Amino acid sequence: MMLALIGFSYTGRGLGGMFLGASNVGPGVATVLANAQPLFAAILSLFILKEVITVCLYLGLFIGFVGVVILALPGFDFGADRSIGALYVLGGAVGTAIGNVLLKLQAGEGDVYWPMGIQLILGAAFLFVTSLLAGEGFEVDWTWSFAGAVFVLAAPATALMVVLWYELLARAPLNKLNSFTFLTPVFGLLIGTLFFNETFRWWSSPGSRSLF
Known about the structure:
Blueprint: H1 2-22, H2 27-34, H3 37-47, H4 55-72, H5 81-106, H6 113-133, H7 144-169, H8 174-178, H9 184-195
Helix pairs in contact: 1-5, 1-6, 2-4, 2-5, 2-9, 3-5, 6-7
């Protein structure tokens, strides 16, 4: 039951929201919005994990939150597809936060690879059923670039990442580990600039391609 809940929240809702949202917002903005996850997880951990959040950690999360808000403002174009995409990504962040708390509860109780493999399969099953309900088809254009992207996303970026994260959760508090995820926007901004022609200025209108 615990693995099913983790698969639903962490893999199904988290990855599903991220990919659905990324189709409507820029990759850099999507990455930034997804990093609201540590804030949600910190609130949940207070009540469920009973983790103590120090003043330094509070300050770090607050600074991270301010950074998320500043970076995300140009991407919020309410009434357009960008706002819908942003909501998908934020929903995915909530799912990931819930999944992280459940992962912390489960971590350190035995094997690493089997539990993570099972929850990934259960999360994939949830996404498969959801795609059927949404009326999506099964046509896939299998090109070399697409196959390469699928492999990178499936193996190092998802499976290996989840295993390493699960192992770390067995050794350290969730909030202390989660604070490092605020480094993700740095890489997201660089990737968006290098590969998706997103510009990097101090400010821009909501409809432009700039992150600032």
